[in-house]
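During the first year of the project, the team set up a workflow for recording each protein of interest as an amino acid sequence followed immediately by a discrete structure-token representation. This format lets reviewers and collaborators read both layers of information side by side without switching files. As required by the reporting guidelines, we include two representative entries from the current panel. The first entry is reproduced here exactly as it appears in our internal archive.
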Amino acid sequence: MLFESDKVMFEIYKETEYTGRYRVVYFTELQDHNKESEINHALAGEHFFDGFIKNFGKDEAKEIIVSLLERLNNGEPVDAPEIERALGDHMA
């Protein structure tokens, strides 16, 4: 069983106010100095996918998310089941 401290909550969203690019925010890693602005950006965007990744191995999971964002921003179709498959055991 994973505790809250053992996982990282994230959201992939599409910007609607600026560039229209897909971005990710890791909510549980935000600091006081950027928490409000990052949450506001995500809330203003169009929700695409969210979930939790395990804290153990999170750097590898973040690399997978970056590669998925690159694909999305290059116009490739990527759906939620494909994201889940790509993250595989990294999902909490």
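The second entry, processed by the same pipeline in the following quarter, appears below.
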Amino acid sequence: MSRFFSQKYSALEPYTPGEQPRDMKYVKLNTNESPFPTSQKAVRAAAEAAERLRLYSDPECTLLTEKLCEVYGLARDEVVFTNGSDEILNFAFMAYCDAEHPAAFPNITYGFYPVFAAVNLLPYEELPLREDFTIDTEAYLGIHKTVFLANPNAPTGIALRPEEIARIAESNPDNVVVVDEAYVDFGAESCLPLTRKYENLLVAQTFSKSRSMAGARLGFGVGNPALIRDLNTIRYSTNPYNINSMTLAAGVGVLSDEEYTRKNCLAIRENRAFAAEELKKLGFTMTDSLANFLFARHPAVSGETIYRELKAKGVLVRHFTKPEICEYNRITVGTREQMQILLDKVKEVLEEHL
């Protein structure tokens, strides 16, 4: 760090994104991207929007908001768009946490939560998962803190039922409960319908995973209109043009191609089941993931060894060093061909160690 860097950030540990190596061609199963191309409707719309890049983008995201409301049955004042769902999560930390309203989230979850808390100089508490990696709902009842829950959780892929989220919201009426549904389209049940029942419930989703738009950076939040006004206050105080014109257009395009999205999500679910069954035959155990990834360990070969040797063989998976999960690897579900390559390389690794 330079000598000019503020001491208030001296202990900040930034989020570590999934590696993006360029040294060879990899089967890339480490960052939970979609293996399927972006909808051609989205691509064409973005290309048309590129002709108007001399102009600022629409800060109200008018056409995109209208289309999302049409698809999801929402009202305009219940929606806010952000630069990826990471931005709305950061906005929520800024808007709803302070010394009197600390944040609370699981100790094993999306790694950005503690970073958002730290960069905003906010107090927070990390609550342990149960031994089976499920979230202990009881621990959040009446906690009187701003709750952040990834559902399905990451990197475990385990989902809470909406009824459990409702209990948490009901028991913390004076605090916001933020549900991060980045992976909800792969088999979990969304809490979106609950946002009209609970004024303190905010749901965040993303176009990155199920809609193949990770590179476009588009997310959105749904909640009570008062919550949305809060978040727009933060948005307009930081960057009112937070969604670029090409991304806005691509978002409208992909929402006009919902059948394509449903087809891709179904393929991921089928490939997830296939890969899970084949990994079990090889001795792996894994969580009951409802996300677009598997969270798997082998009883005889360490998680780090499997990660490193798969990488050497051209297959990237995500390894975490946290002691509680260091024996696991998170494996993005790709095409059937990619899953077969993974399985073939895993067999080679196991043969070399067993």
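For the second entry, the following points were noted during internal review. The chain has two domains: 16-37+259-353, 40-256. The chain has a mean pLDDT of 97. Both points are flagged for discussion at the upcoming steering committee meeting.
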